[in-house]
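Worked example

This section walks through a single chain of length 710. The input is the sequence exactly as stored; nothing has been trimmed or padded.
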Amino acid sequence: MENFITNDKTTLGARYNESTKSVEFRLYSKNATKVFLCIFDSPQGEDPVMVLNMEKIDNDIFYTSVKDYVLNCHKRPVYYGYMLFGPNWEYLENWEMGSDIGFKSKVDRQNNRFNPNKIAYDPYSQELSHLASDVNPGYNMFRSGGKFHLIDNAKWAIKSVFYPKANRQIASASLRPFNSEIIGEVHIKDLTQKINMPEAGTYKGAAKFAKSLKNLGITMVEFLPLNEFDSRQNGVNHWGYMPLGYFTLARKYAYDKTQGNLLDEFRLMVNEFHKNDIKVCLDMVYNHTGEAGLVNNNVEDAMQLSYTLIDNSTYYKVYKNGYYRSNSGCGNDFNTSNEAVMNLIVDSLVFWINQGVDAFRFDLAAALLECGLDCDEIYDNMNSLGAKLKDILNQKGIKVVDNFAQAQEGVILIAEPWTCGGKDCYQAGNFPYYWAEWNDYYRDIVRKLTLRANDVSPNELKEVITGSQKRFGGANKSINYIASHDGFSLYDLNSFKHKSASTNGGSDWEICGDYDNNHYFRENAIRKQLAFLFMSYGITMIQIGDIIMHTKNGNNNSFNKDDGTNYLNWERALRKDSFENRIMEYIRNLIKFRNENAIFRSENFSKVLSYHYDNGQIAPLNNEGYWNNKFEKFFGVLINTPQNRIYIAISKTNDNLDIILPLNKEKSSWHICLDSSIFGNINLSPKDYIEKDYILNPQAMAVFMEVYDG
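Given that input, the structure is written out below as tokens.
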């Protein structure tokens, strides 16, 4: 099945008008008083060849157009940027680049930071010409402090790149419930960088690897940010959580880095993933931008690349004294409660949906629940952008999946439901029903199950294995995971008591341990955590690196490591009988087991469960002494389905535990599927008969299936 993909229909940015054979430029700025469009023949080293006055039309939009016979945009990219004046820098007829004519202040009481000596790239750019660090590693010509505000940076400023893009056809992945997906989180370069192929580390390389991901059982790949960013910002930035534009792609991940070809390579990658029935999820960072904010906390010294130059107080949360709010912890907070910013966010989502993207993970998504017009933290799940996003997208003809247990057409929205600081910044469980949410509570409980068994009660295990319904107001919202890009890898959280001393930042409070370097205990713990993950109700997410037991050697904040710390080593996982290979095959079969037993995806999951003591008897739900006892040694779950019955037995003790399995149905018996302490694979069609009692090894998890013998 082919899905016809068109370009986005927003009017802002640069757009080709077929009827007039011209390129139209539209820029929003509420507070600008004069705007010029600057056209360049090349991205660097030359002054503009055209400087055109833009007319202010309706809704604070500045407009102009240029005939294509002048630009010749179908044969070469058009490089452009904007020069803006405003209340803090008045436009005068005798003004010239590099002067202070008309200058009043670097930032005024209304937080305007207009500076016509700096060329701003378009927030609606679909491609950027280069990065600031390419031409000025110290960023001085992009700053406003001292005399830097007088530097004319037109020759070296980042330019927007425009080229008309033809429509493309992109294959569609199959229609299926969201809770049937196996999400694999990965950095696009890390995925293939260590594979011996010319396209390693690129969009094209990822496309060539799609079939391998399918063979592992991954059905949705969640890429860390792909928007353009400056990897040399503040040292080394590898992960890309400092976006420069929300319609752009990072050029460094392109195999063909020729300007004008980025989007086509991305589309081909999405197409290839879809042909392998793998959906694509993009990690989007709408809580802050890569402009980063102030330098040395000096209110007069701001980074000025685009948003601050175009309309500082529109795009950012700014205090009355000129300082940026930074609940994101990244130097600024995007003003997501401003209507123009909301429109930009929605327009960019529509753009990527029109390129075939199936889902979005929103970084620090609590920012999208903000509705205060100033810097006060006011979260609202009824009136904010996060609350209204489904209706807004519906108005644009885009459906949003709102029942994760049913196969529905539409885009999927996933929240990281917190931000880094500020009042009430933890908003887990507060997103509307059609949002899935990362479940950090699940993460911590599953880690405690092996690392701090006496810190977790049967009641907590019951809550997370059934989808954290109380927490999220329903069972279908939980993104279940044990490890993500933030924090230790799965191997490392079971191998280190503390983060590495070489880690830049990173949490000190992670639930982790090394089992006294006992390899047997470590592997049992990892297998137990993974088995619990794939047998829980909700949406399953795993780092692709965790499938092959990737280690970062104790670094739990590897955002700045563009090296083997993050690059995935597939070679070790392909060596038969290696630890990495055993775990990879174990996970592959866990996915098969989950797929073959539909109850793990059924909305009736929690209704068919009964809970059992180690003697096989049912544990009544009103027995608070059992449910709240963190020192309870055993947790048993019986899944009763018409097709078969599955029994999950979990030890929380360091001693052998002699358990009795629940009574069988007539002419049926229990057969073992897996035991985390026995390092074989999973018996998908179990044949090994088990008597009514079973010895659970210390801290082991075993899974049994009832087989009809009659």
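What to look for: The first strand starts at residue 2 and ends at 5.
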